[in-house]
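Issue: ligand-bound run for zinc ion - logging full I/O for the record.

Environment: standard queue, default settings, no custom constraints.

Inputs:
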Amino acid sequence: MVDNNTIMGLGKCVECGAKETDGFSCYEMFQFPLVWEHNDPELYALHFWLVSCYMIQHPSNYTEEGYKLMVNLFTEAYDNEWHTEYILRRNRDLVSKIDKITNPLPNNKRKRRYRNWSMTIEEIYISGEASS
Ligand SMILES: [Zn+2]
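Outputs:
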């Protein structure tokens, strides 16, 4: 799989710090839960949280404005305990502006700054599908 979204350096995602596992890059590990949730409605209900967490941990893929929009949506949804349907409606509004939120720079020109997170996609990948 060609990884166009993350850059691994010294076995770690240079942006979120996820450790390369089973030879998979950060972005490749992210593909696994996307497949798992496809077959599991309970897991799929958490789709927004999975995707937005991943997006928030990789700001280089977005414009500054797009990133702010995402963080705002996440924060509002969390703080106000929005129901899934409402989140998805608001998320669709956001995604409809996606060409404005994606960083126009080619992948290898994007500036990536490492930030430390208490949890990254690596933990999700390692936990595996069975935990649901
Ligand atoms: Zn990463």
